[in-house]
Amino acid sequence: MKIDVVSALDLSPADIARWSSLQVGPLRLDSPFLSPRWTQAVARALDATGKKASDVKVAILRDDTGQAIGFLPSRVRSDVGMPVGAPMCDYQALVAAPGVAIDPRQLLAALHVHRLDFCHMQADDETLARHGRGQADSWIVEAPDGYAAYEAGRRAAGSGVLKDIDKKRRKAEREVGPAVFTALSNSRADFEQLIAWKRAQLVATGQTDYFRTPWVVALVDALFSTRDPDFGGGLYSLHLGGELAAVHLHLRGSHTIHGWLIAHNAAFERYSPGLMLFQDILKSMDGGPYVRLDLGAGDYRFKRELSNARQTVVFGFYGSPSPAAFVRSAAYGVRQMAEALPLGRMSQLPGKAMRRLDLLRGLH
């Protein structure tokens, strides 16, 4: 098997078409984060803000006839490959024809790196996922038969979340005014309000404000404006009594909406407007191309209650004998040892430190 490596913005139309065709079929590969359009959008955002678009590379696996049978994008910095678009990227995987796997040592050699890091690698990826050092659940709503069937399934599973949302919606409309849902909104004002609310949320919770990073701003702005049928952003909003109550910017694949940036107006918090908006999005999927709403990783109550499916993602790395791999292995060793000890919150500190350093490394 041969591996070609090209810069993301130098992908040929034929390779882009082939990559996209490999996403058709397995629903897990329908994610917008696994699209060549995502990889190229990140490269363009880096280029537009003075970063090196050429750092975003794609390893293309080819069979003996020269046919592309797999694609793995990576942002290469020094001797380490990172997920493209991290920390804004919720999935990684080798997008490949069924049954295709490769020795990851060949990927290291082709990309000229000593280490490949991943943070949301799909667990059924046959090339890198087995080198994971931990895992998490990504929560998914599957609704191929429409909202009514999904609602009945949630009720049968003993979940009362949708009934509670209905009650809060009626209460909000009595006390505030009509609830108005807009799908694929073009409102620049609502988009800017989402960013403002999201930034305030990050600051209030002591998290890194990634909107201080120019390439992130450029990426989010570009995706808001991208409305192609099989890829792009989707701004969804809910107004109560004429006032913006909740707004989400999600990414769209051919059949998947992936939850990405969500925020709500604190003045309406008692009505759970964010959940109301998720319910509206699910209803709007009826009769359209979308059959799943991917809520992403993170053990939040609303994700557990809304979801009816899960996908495991793993974090870890694969490396060759080198200082880069040694340092990463040592860091995971400290993390795993701390997490195994009965230290309460203290046991989580090494993991939090690693995640924060990875976030800053990705933003840089």
Automatic annotation (TrEMBL):
<dbReference type="InterPro" id="IPR016181">
    <property type="entry name" value="Acyl_CoA_acyltransferase"/>
</dbReference>
<dbReference type="InterPro" id="IPR038740">
    <property type="entry name" value="BioF2-like_GNAT_dom"/>
</dbReference>
<protein>
    <submittedName>
        <fullName>Cellulose biosynthesis protein CelD</fullName>
    </submittedName>
</protein>
<feature type="domain" description="BioF2-like acetyltransferase">
    <location>
        <begin position="162"/>
        <end position="304"/>
    </location>
</feature>
<dbReference type="Pfam" id="PF13480">
    <property type="entry name" value="Acetyltransf_6"/>
</dbReference>
